[in-house]
Structures are given as C-alpha cells and as structure tokens.
Automatic annotation (TrEMBL):
InterPro entries referenced in this protein's UniProt entry, alphabetically: 4Fe4S_Fe-S-bd
Residues in the signal sequence: none
Alphabetical list of SUPFAM superfamilies matching this protein: 4Fe-4S ferredoxins
4Fe-4S ferredoxin-type domain span: 23-53
Protein source organism: Candidatus Ruania gallistercoris
The protein, known as: Ferredoxin
Taxonomy, superkingdom: Bacteria
Lineage: Bacteria, Bacillati, Actinomycetota, Actinomycetes, Micrococcales
Amino acid sequence: MGQLFGPRDPAADAGWQHAHPRKGFFTDTSICIGCKACEVACKEWNHVPADPDPQLLASSYDNTGG
C-alpha cells in the first residue's frame, strides 16, 4: 500500500542540519492581480511579522501579465 504522507522531516532527509521553519501555500495564480492580499492574510493568520519593506523582501511570483 502507498504512503499517504511524505517524510516527517524532509529537510533533515535532504541533509540540512539546521533547517529554518518555513511556510508556503498554493493559490490559483490564474486570477492573481498582484495585490499580495493573500500574502498579508497568510501572515496575519499564522502570526508572522509583516515585512518592513515588501519591495525588498517579496519572494512571490505575480501572474499579472495575462
């Protein structure tokens, strides 16, 4: 029978000794307008501090080209 879940610690399995906690999410980029409201909502929901300068620290892909 196949495994339903992946490894419990994929960073350690990949050889990383001190992996920093990370968060990620999937979104429907076909309706993205580049407003980054989804990023703000995710940070509020997960109690992650806001970026001091979003222009310098943003690391998302905006599908605003159509």
